[in-house]
Design a protein that fits this description.
The chain has five helices and no strands. By secondary structure, it is an all-alpha fold.
């Protein structure tokens, strides 16, 4: 078989073009996969940080709730006041750290006179912490009789926080995703 050089060169060029196209498609798909992996990794890190923050917030809310049951008379010196003060500081810091995950919304519509991070409306997930902070601030450190009334306000705040953070963390969809992953692994 006697092929002309032009036909032979054209055939080789076509083969090289096909291989190049295949490599380009393969590289494109690989890059898409790498981007999905990077996005999944970023999402995992974000949710890990958010979960740590929400765990600490839940602990502070529980501590606030049970502080209402303490009787200052049974504590030495200023221990009750110091405990209350430390709890208020932790709640305040937790609220501010929460703004890193949940910035205010409608910042152009409300609070133009405030510092930038405090303009707009606070997200509901932070409302529970703010409500608990206010209730803890109202606890009397001398006499227990009026402190039990703050327990229901803190319990309501804790329920609000739990409901709002659950919307964000979405444990039900994670459970479905986990079960799907397990079934794929078991089927393999």
């Amino acid at each position: 078989m006697n092929l002309e050089p032009a036909v032979f060169v054209s055939a080789i060029a076509a083969c090289i073009s096909a291989v190049s196209a295949f490599i380009a498609v393969w590289n494109y798909r690989r890059e898409q996969l790498n981007q999905r992996i990077a996005a999944a990794k970023w999402k995992k890190e974000y949710f890990s940080d958010l979960l740590k923050w929400s765990d600490e917030a839940m602990f502070l809310l529980s501590e606030s709730l049970h502080m209402c049951d303490l009787d200052p008379k049974w504590m030495e010196g200023n221990e009750f006041f110091e405990t209350q003060h430390a709890l208020r500081v932790k709640l305040s810091a937790q609220i501010d750290r929460g703004r890193w995950f949940f910035p205010n919304y409608a910042v152009g519509q409300h609070g133009a006179h405030k510092s930038e991070a405090f303009r707009g409306y606070r997200p509901a997930v932070l409302d529970g912490l703010v409500d608990a902070y206010r209730a803890v601030s109202s606890i009397k450190y001398v006499e227990q009789s009026q402190n039990r009334q703050h327990r229901s306000a803190i319990e309501t705040a804790k329920r609000l926080f739990t409901s709002e953070i659950q919307k964000v963390l979405d444990p039900r969809s994670r459970d479905v995703e986990f079960r799907k992953l397990l079934s794929n692994v078991a089927a393999a």
